[in-house]
TrEMBL record:
Belongs to the dienelactone hydrolase family. It is found in: Cytoplasm, Cytosol. GO terms for molecular function: hydrolase activity. The gene is LOC101948806. This is Carboxymethylenebutenolidase homolog. It comes from Chrysemys picta bellii.
Length: 245
């Protein structure tokens, strides 16, 4: 039973009724979803899942959107077979669940996927985007991985990265104004610290009235008041990738 007294602030939103356009592959020890554009390209984007896992239709929708915009998109199972969070799970157990799915311990899987993209897909310029848990993983990879060109961290939880602001690559941080899980004071502090310590290009943007998950968990047709911000954030994400890839 879900703990109704402490519901998960990271609710699944609108689960897209969506049949994906790509296919699943096995990349060494990691399963992954891949979608390629209609014309050949040397540009690729790794898409990192939220807590609801790599098979969530919403995540695959975002991967397919990248492919439609000219990128090879790959969404690996960064939980490596471990069960994703379910909306019915007891929120009081979340921290224990998270301990075995550490967003700062994705380096091995990232290296495997990078090797696949270079060797099997002929990719030369590779970026990464991530949502929620995946946004936190993007922040980590932007601090650590020399092979990636750029990243977009979409409502990645900042509190796990206090005092870690020396980014290696241009990074775009997307947040919602009304995110119950990421207080605006944390976003303000992030911006201040990046200003002090970051030597590469970065951008922090807050979207008015938006909640956690708005970029990939809200359907525009069901949330007309949010549609302009959903579309703006997606376009901003693509513009950032186009600039650096």
């Amino acid at each position: 039973m879900a703990n109704e007294a402490r519901p998960c602030p990271c609710d699944i939103g609108d689960r897209f009724e969506y049949g994906d356009l790509g296919h699943e592959v096995q990349v060494e020890h990691v399963k992954a979803y891949v979608c390629k554009p209609s014309t050949s390209t040397e540009k690729a984007v790794i898409v990192i899942q939220d807590i609801f896992g790599w098979q969530l239709p919403n995540i695959r929708y975002m991967a397919d959107m990248l492919a439609a915009n000219g990128y090879i998109a790959i969404c690996p199972d960064f939980f490596v077979g471990q069960k994703p969070w379910e909306p019915s799970d007891d929120w009081s157990t979340f921290n224990d669940w998270l301990k075995t799915r550490d967003a700062s311990k994705v380096d091995r899987e990232a290296d495997v996927v990078l090797r696949y993209l270079k060797e099997q897909c002929s990719a030369k310029k590779i970026g990464v985007i991530g949502f929620c848990w995946g946004g936190t993983a993007v922040h980590h990879l932007m601090l650590k991985n020399p092979e990636l060109k750029t990243g977009v961290a979409i409502y990645g939880v900042i509190k796990y990265f206090e005092d870690r602001y020396s980014l290696l690559h241009p990074t775009f941080f997307i947040f919602g104004e009304n995110d119950d899980y990421i207080p605006l004071e944390q976003v303000t502090l992030l911006e201040q610290k990046l200003k002090q310590h970051c030597k590469v290009d970065y951008k922090v943007k807050i979207y008015p009235g938006q909640t956690h998950g708005f970029v990939h968990r809200k359907r525009e047709d069901m949330n007309p008041q949010d549609k302009p911000y959903i579309e703006e954030a997606r376009n901003d994400m693509l513009s950032w990738l186009n600039k650096y890839l």
